[in-house]
Design a protein that fits this description.
The chain has helices at residues 2-8, 23-27, 103-111, 138-143, 168-179, 196-200, 202-207, 214-217, 246-256, 261-287, 291-310; strands at 15-17, 34-36, 43-46, 54-57, 72-76, 83-86, 117-121, 145-149, 162-164. The protein is an alpha/beta fold. A four-stranded antiparallel beta sheet has the order 4-3-6-5, with no helix packed on it. The protein has a three-stranded parallel beta sheet with strand order 7-8-9. The chain starts with a helix and ends with a helix.
Length: 312
């Protein structure tokens, strides 16, 4: 919601997301200013029968019948009756649908001379580092500042203008406070994905910021629940929903098989590794809460605010 407010104020021009949950679109950010490069679990498309890509935005998860690298959703296009595909980009795949991936929106912004600030929020950049065209080169590299906000190391730390070792929620809260900007509350009633009437007007989702209108008309749909897809029935097969990774499927198979001594040993080893990882994470979190670190974060956020305002 904070990013939506920054976009509304003109401080953020474009958002690239690796998440498949569609939360940025649900927050009210218009689709034209959003690149969901790994897809959106609420969007299915007709990319075979219609001459132009036709997308259907649903108030439910469209991947319940699709599987790993099998994208058919079981529903058909209203116009050509071709079976629809989900938009999830699985591991090893190259996403080629125009929406909701919107690669063109990202590259257009990066190629503009006015792009002078890139903010990386809460990502290890393990995947994004592979996309060379996402990172400034040549003259643009000298002009554009890169800010990384993450608790742990990333492969782009050495090229970052500023690295903030803190939680994203804490940084964004401080940033909005320094800007004097409120963080809007999420309104389920006015959610453009869950609200079927708004979903039908996909043109508005494409180009307009979705505002909460409850204050003006009274919240008469406070207990609104999104409809469930009639065509979707739970499957008894042990298959992985389309937007999950294959690793979850393997874990499920292991949990349903009898436990032998070798598996027990491996589980103990994994448990020790998980405990060690948890200890390291706790150490990082505790170290980020002391007073000196908080002062450093406050100063770093102040620098980020200055760059944000100057980039307008």
């Amino acid at each position: 919601m904070a990013l939506r407010e920054l976009y509304k104020r003109g401080l953020v021009r474009h958002i690239l997301s690796q998440n498949c949950d569609g939360l940025h679109l649900r927050s009210g950010v218009p689709q034209k200013s959003l690149s969901e490069i790994h897809g959106n679990m609420h969007i299915e498309v007709c990319r075979e029968g219609c001459s132009t890509l036709r997308q259907y935005i649903r108030p439910y998860d469209v991947t319940k019948k699709s599987q790993f690298r099998r994208h058919k959703t079981g529903r058909s296009c209203d116009h050509c009756h071709t079976e629809l595909d989900d938009t999830i980009v699985h591991f090893g795949e190259v996403g080629r649908v125009q929406w909701p991936l919107n690669w063109a929106g990202t590259t257009d912004i990066l190629e503009e001379s006015s792009c002078d600030l890139l903010i990386c929020l809460g990502t290890s950049l393990a995947v994004l580092k592979q996309y060379a065209f996402l990172w400034p080169t040549g003259e643009a590299k000298k002009r554009a500042k890169i800010v990384i906000i993450n608790l742990q190391w990333t492969p782009k730390d050495r090229v970052a203008t500023l690295k903030i070792h803190a939680k994203c929620d804490d940084v964004m809260t401080k940033l909005m406070q320094q800007l004097g900007a409120p963080i809007p509350e999420y309104c389920r009633t006015c959610d453009p994905i869950l609200n079927s009437k708004r979903s039908a007007r996909s043109g508005e989702l494409m180009s307009r910021i979705t505002e909460c209108s409850c204050a003006g008309r009274g919240n008469t749909r406070r207990n609104y629940a999104p409809p469930s897809p009639d065509a979707v029935t739970p499957s008894n097969d042990l298959v992985t929903p389309g937007w999950w990774t294959v690793g979850i499927s393997r874990s499920l198979k292991r949990s349903l098989t009898s436990v032998n001594s070798g598996q027990t040993t491996r589980r103990k080893t994994r448990g020790k590794r998980a405990k060690a990882s948890k200890t390291r994470s706790q150490r990082i979190e505790s170290s980020s809460t002391n007073d000196s670190d908080q002062c450093a974060v406050q100063e770093e956020v102040s620098a980020l605010v200055e760059w944000l305002v100057s980039s307008v």
